[in-house]
Amino acid sequence: MKKRLLVVSTVAVALASISLLAACSKSEDGTSTATSTGAASTQATKAPEKRGKITTSIYDRGNMVPEEGTLDKNRWTDWINKNSPVDVTFIPIPRSKPEDKLNVMFASGEAPDLIQDYDGKNRSSWYESKQLLPLDDLIEKNSVEFKALLAKNPLLKKFGTRSDGKLYDIAVLAKLDVNWVYLVRTDWLKKLGLEAPKTTDDLFAVAKAFTEKDPDGNGKNDTYGISLGGGYNNKVIDFMFGVPVFSNYNLKDGNLQYAWENQLAGLTFKKKLFQENIIDKDFAADTTGDKAKRDFLNGKLGFYVGALPSTIEMETLMKNDPNATLSPIVLPKSSFGQFSPPLTSPVQNAAVVNAKAKDPVAVIKYLDFLTRENSVKALKWGIEGEHYKLDAKGCPQVIDPDKNKKERSYAGDYGMIMSSLPGLPSCDTRIDQLSDSKPAEKEIKRILTEARQLYLAPERPQSGFFLDVPSSPKDLDMIVQSVPNTQIAAAKIGTPDEFVKAIVTPAISAEQAIKTSQDIWNKAGGTKVDEWFQNWYKTNKEKAILVTDIYNLK
Hints:
D-Maltodextrin-Binding Protein, domain 2, 3 domains, alpha+beta
């Protein structure tokens, strides 16, 4: 859910020679003023500052274009090393489980100076084992651009500060935007004389009608209102009932509480959907959600949730069902309030610095380089005149899509720790890349525009309390990890086994499933975890990073 950024300009590496005039002074505007002695001037030249060297990890996503070179040597690594004030060596790390390789490198003393990794558990583990470098003094003494960015956006520092009060994580600033979209077949609503559901009771009634009243008009009983297949469709029901997106805890009466009450409400709703035959009975086998997507694209599903449809997906739906029309809707209101689907977070921790970095100052200089406007433009947009041209608003327009696909498709992670800068033109690449002349893209553009109006609203935040979950001690984290996600409803994508049993088995009530899950949690030591989070919040309220914080960024 979580869920994004980029860079550049040439940097002079030689220091200009400094003229020293004997018996000469300078006025405040910098002009020379001769003294009465009339002594001759002399000039001394300072030696160029030594160029630093650093190593940094780069995700290997398996998307490198062979003709472009390798992840550690290509047009963008060359561009960075040509324009950066330091020499950078890139070390590819598998995107899947990067900790496996990085932990081996730490153990052998060969970990990169700058470790770029989105996984908070990895970074917390390295922090607890004292393998990370605090950055406060380094930034204060050696940074210009990144220090200014921190000053302007205090939440960046709040995100990166650890339990000892020092800054370790490098956070990046993005744009709050739509992530998941909750879609309804508006043509089905119109055919059946229904309105988009405003409450969860309405949702149940509309989904039941979509299942039973032949909304596609083919005379067959082959449609479903809702699917629980995969993570998106399953979890969105939980989010309607206030189950947190990022943690297991909500705030109630001033105290943190494990969200059992919310999970019970969501599970009860899902069980009712199953009992009334409103969902596919084989939903548990659809762990990836692929079947739910096929049903949706084949015009057989009334409600669907996921990322914004791609052009290919929209074209497929329009081909399979030419009458299909879609609209995003807010999550129907439950007894716990009304929420929006998960959004892209405007702040995210993305990197840390190795405590054994050979040249920490060079790391900070590189961070400054990636914070400059020219760097952001280059690594985000490409090279002007080659990959894009500017429109009247100063926004990039792709010159040659095929060239960009080849030369830019793998480049994103080189700007992983770049923030989106407010000073850049107000460019909306998600909208601008969609053409009104292409029916599928025009529809996607409309859906995204409507979704933004609905979801980017503080009165309907994404569900949950914490935006960034405090890192619990390692022994408590081991308790959490010891409880399989297949058994209880931890804050992860998926349908726990205990909950699946309750949904499909008439003899097992939702209350029984919750009680079983609580027993599993408590037996594993979960009450200690609960107490730690409750006590942490009582003594660290001012440090807590909350969902509501994302709506205060400018």
